[in-house]
């Protein structure tokens, strides 16, 4: 067991990023308290995570990190009903309008709903002997002395109380409070990079006829320039399929059954659209809208309070169509673990620098693709235009060349950096193809 850094750490927010932060903090602190305003423990969507209703693909990199932090978790998910699949044999990718060729890669994936995944992680976190959860507790403020954060204020059934701590981690998602807290303590706010994405989702849970989609377990239809309509179909626990339509650049998917089917007729292969038309609906169609992707540049701040860190969506939230968010929360947790090993000195500075390095490839991938979708040429630099032309070519070639499809899926799965697509072997195949 590693040496404990200090007595008490508190994590504010029990989304995926908060759960993973709590996991790594439990190795370094005597006690960890996980604070959450919702009631925890059910594997149904909860108020604090409304996005949990919609498709939540876990990228291969995210799954690997989860398995590292919670050995055996993949097996537990599958035993509980999550759907295992083999990359990219049972993953059907249609990107840039091209259906990718497939071949075995040895990489496994697991498909489940977000509440199911989160509840399984929570179960493992709750087994940590030095961790307590304080759910139904709203974070109302922070405690500070000089340049040091000393705890948080939380309000629950018994009224408001103070929770002193040596370290406070803001894992409260897009609405994270650190910006306001920094201001109230006399610190500057971090620079924000904002990319307009105007994404809208419509999601329907369905029961498909057995074998209706053969061996396919996940089908991803990406949006691209000229086609802002996409879709994700995932086999999930409970013998169900979760079908999410995604519209980019202001395109909103319909929430009525006929409109839903018509969208799939337009973007999905005919067998997929037919299987969905013939399926048994399990409830209503739900919708969501995501206007922007935002990255907060904490690593560029000259001053930051001691005793405070931020993780997950509270640092950077992405266009969800690339499925990166939970895996980024996992990368943040690894950065936290690594930096905690170096002690408390300069922890925030080292941590935010490590997070920035981990975030860069994912941010580059998603914002590059987002800018490609937008009509205004002025928003796109020459570099972005060249890169997107090359990606378009790779996607065409991937329809015939499974090795290019594998290279592409490894980069979008965050297993390899985007530069892997520039390796001579890939460039050669793209040029020859
Ligand atoms: C529509 C949509 C689809 C998505 N699809 C994917 C996908 O396919 N794959 C993927 O990896 N990611 C996806 N994401 C992103 C993913 O949901 C997040 O990146 C991921 O959940 C990590 O977020 P988080 O834990 O940082 O924050 P959140 O999941 O938002 O969790 C924040 C937690 O903090 C709690 N909280 C907030 N304020 C307070 C307070 N004052 N007091 C107490 N508790 C508080 C909330 O209740 C919540 O539990 C999607 C996002 C959206 C919006």
TrEMBL record:
Transmembrane segments: none
Coiled-coil annotated spans: none
Any one Pfam family match given in the protein's UniProt record, by short name: FAD_binding_3
FAD-binding domain ranges (all copies): 10-336
PANTHER family in alphabetical order: THIAMINE THIAZOLE SYNTHASE (PTHR43422)
Name of the protein in question: 2-polyprenyl-6-methoxyphenol hydroxylase-like FAD-dependent oxidoreductase
Organism: Streptosporangium brasiliense
InterPro entries the record matches: FAD-bd (IPR002938), FAD/NAD-bd_sf (IPR036188)
């Amino acid at each position: 067991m590693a040496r404990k850094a200090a007595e008490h750490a508190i994590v504010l927010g029990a989304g995926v990023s908060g759960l993973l932060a709590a996991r790594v903090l439990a190795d370094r602190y005597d006690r960890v308290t996980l604070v959450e305003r919702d009631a925890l423990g059910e594997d149904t969507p909860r108020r604090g995570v409304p996005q949990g209703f919609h498709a939540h693909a876990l990228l291969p990199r995210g799954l690997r990190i989860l398995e590292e932090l919670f050995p055996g978790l993949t097996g537990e998910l599958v035993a509980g009903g999550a759907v295992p699949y083999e990359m990219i044999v049972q993953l059907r990718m249609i990107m840039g309008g091209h259906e990718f060729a497939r071949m075995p890669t040895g990489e496994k994936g697991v498909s489940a709903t977000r509440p199911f995944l989160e509840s399984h992680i929570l179960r493992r976190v709750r087994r940590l002997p030095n961790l307590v959860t304080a759910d139904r507790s709203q974070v109302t403020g922070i405690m500070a002395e000089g340049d040091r954060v000393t705890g948080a204020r939380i309000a629950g059934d018994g009224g408001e109380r103070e929770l002193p701590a040596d370290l406070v981690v803001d894992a409260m998602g897009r609405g994270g409070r650190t910006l306001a807290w920094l201001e109230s303590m006399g610190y500057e706010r971090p620079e924000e990079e904002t990319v307009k994405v105007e994404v809208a989702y419509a999601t329907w849970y369905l029961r498909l006829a057995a074998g209706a989609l053969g061996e396919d377990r996940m089908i991803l239809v990406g949006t691209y320039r000229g086609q802002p309509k996409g879709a994700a179909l995932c086999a999930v626990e409970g013998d169900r399929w979760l079908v999410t339509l995604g519209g980019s650049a202001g395109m909103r998917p319909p929430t009525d059954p006929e409109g839903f089917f018509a969208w799939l007729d337009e973007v999905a292969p005919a067998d997929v659209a037919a299987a969905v038309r013939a399926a048994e609906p399990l409830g209503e169609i739900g919708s969501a809208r995501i206007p922007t992707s935002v990255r907060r540049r904490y690593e560029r701040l000259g001053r930051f309070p001691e005793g405070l860190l931020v993780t997950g969506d509270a640092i950077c939230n992405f266009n969800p169509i690339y499925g990166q968010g939970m895996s980024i929360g996992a990368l943040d947790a690894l950065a936290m673990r690594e930096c905690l090993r170096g002690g408390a000195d300069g922890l925030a500075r080292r941590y935010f620098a490590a997070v920035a390095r981990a975030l860069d490839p994912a941010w580059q991938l998603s914002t590059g693709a987002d800018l490609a979708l937008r009509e205004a040429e002025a928003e796109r630099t020459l570099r972005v235009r060249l890169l997107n032309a090359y990606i378009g070519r790779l996607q065409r070639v991937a329809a015939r060349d499974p090795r290019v499809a594998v290279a592409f899926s490894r980069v979008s799965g965050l297993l390899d950096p985007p530069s892997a697509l520039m390796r001579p072997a890939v460039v050669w195949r793209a040029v020859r193809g």
